[in-house]
Design a protein that fits this description.
Blueprint (H helix, E strand, L loop, with lengths): L1 H63 L2 H4 L5 H11 L4 E5 L15 E4 L12 E2 L24 E7 L28 E15 L8 H9 L22 H7 L4 E15 L9
Antiparallel strand pairs: 1-2, 1-4, 2-3, 4-5, 5-6
């Protein structure tokens, strides 16, 4: 009887150890599931934050500014259109700073980047236009936040597309539009200007590297120049972008591209006055 009692007490210990191991495994699985759910929720929140922040500059351009305002030489879009006539392909960049008193997209706040040559290596960086020394267009990853939360930094790039020669007739007309409607076609003239805006929203606090290093390597500073932002045209296709560089340092980014067509139609309503 005593021998049987000892055997049963040993079996109980083994059962309890198995139960403890099972509970431990279940606890580990529960923790891992919770961490996975937390990561999914965090990634979703980050994505929403970046997308919403990137939408803001676009809405400023499209919904607030007028045609005449955008075409002015002291606004980035207007300055880019003027520069494109003489030296096409350049990229005008500025940092969207809604918490400051700076004008939205003012030309004097922009930095002009010259993209690498078409034959250059894919990881070739941009250069600064030799006639333009302003470097205030580079966002500072440690202070140029878009809100008091100090989370997102937004870099904006404006480029006039250089592939217009490959577009077919009417390629840039709005869907279901008719410029000749209610107009005398022979006496009307439309002025179209294509503009592409690339907005990159950045969460710098997730960087795996010191932000000063990332600043100099990817974006640019007073002493360094980073990568271009827009690589949609044939002459810059395949080049490394600022967003590619930031992603390499573990920084979440969201890039939004908006191409707009500025159109103004002037209608001749009277015969021109002959020169004296």
């Amino acid at each position: 009887m005593r021998l049987g009692y000892r055997r049963q007490r040993g079996a109980t210990l083994i059962v309890m150890l198995i139960l403890l191991l099972f509970i431990t495994i279940m606890g580990i699985l529960a923790i891992r599931t919770a961490m996975t759910s937390l990561n999914i929720a965090t990634n979703s929140q980050i994505g929403q934050l970046l997308v919403q922040t990137g939408d803001t500059p676009t809405n400023q351009f499209l919904n607030v500014a007028t045609y005449d305002a955008l075409k002015k030489a002291d606004i980035v879009i207007g300055a880019a259109l003027l520069e494109h006539k003489n030296a096409p392909g350049k990229e005008f960049i500025f940092c969207y700073r809604p918490t400051s008193g700076q004008q939205m997209g003012a030309a004097f706040d922009a930095t002009i980047l010259v993209p690498p040559a078409q034959t250059a290596a894919a990881d070739t960086k941009a250069t600064i236009d030799s006639t333009q020394s302003n470097r205030s267009g580079f966002c500072d990853l440690q202070q140029d936040f878009g809100s008091a939360r100090e989370a997102v930094v937004t870099q904006v790039a404006v480029r006039i597309p250089t592939d217009s020669a490959n577009a077919g007739v009417g390629a840039y007309l709005e869907r279901n539009s008719d410029l000749s409607e209610n107009s005398i076609v022979k006496n009307s003239k439309a002025d179209d200007s294509r503009v592409r805006i690339t907005i990159t929203s950045i969460l710098p606090n997730y960087s795996t590297e010191d932000l000063a290093v990332v600043q100099a390597e990817c974006i640019g500073s007073a002493t360094a120049v980073g990568y271009i932002n827009d690589t949609l045209d044939e002459d810059v296709a395949g080049k490394k972008t600022m967003a590619d560089c930031l992603t390499g340092y573990g920084i979440p980014v969201n890039t939004q591209v908006q191409e707009i067509v500025l159109r103004q139609r002037d209608k001749q309503i009277a015969a021109p006055i002959p020169a004296p």
